[in-house]
Amino acid sequence: MNIDSIKNGIVxxxxxxxxxxxIYEALNLRDLDCSVAIITNAKSEKMGxxxxxxxxxxxxxxxxxxxxxxxxxxxxxxxxxxxxxxxQVELPERIINIAKCQNPRCITSIEKDxxxxxxxxxxxxxxxxxxxxxxxxx
Length: 138
Prior knowledge:
Blueprint (H helix, E strand, L loop, with lengths): L8 E8 L3 H7 L9 E9 L3 E8 L7 H7 L4 E6 L2 E7 L5 E3 L10 H4 L6 E6 L4 E4 L5 E2 L1
Antiparallel strand pairs: 1-3, 1-4, 2-3, 4-5, 6-7, 7-8, 8-9
């Protein structure tokens, strides 16, 4: 398989296998007017198998979305065929409107205009809690 390198764009690398499509959907990459390549189950010496997303455009990326789904990912920014920036994604301390509270009695289930806000309460186990009702989210 041959996926061309990108001249100007973003490469999201070191995504755990089978999570690439989840990141693609969460970032709404289907709405872009440029080429996007999703490589799934690529061989990796470090991870065994991994997914990679290549976006043929330099743009803003919501790092919290990626950090919530795959905190071990890296983001590489390429310009003129050269790597100009490399970011290590981290688990965000707080996420807003990335996930929905599963508690049917939470105020966010009733008040549709409220932001869905979760705070990281257990970094080691990647547990977040709803700001309003304290329901946990993994």
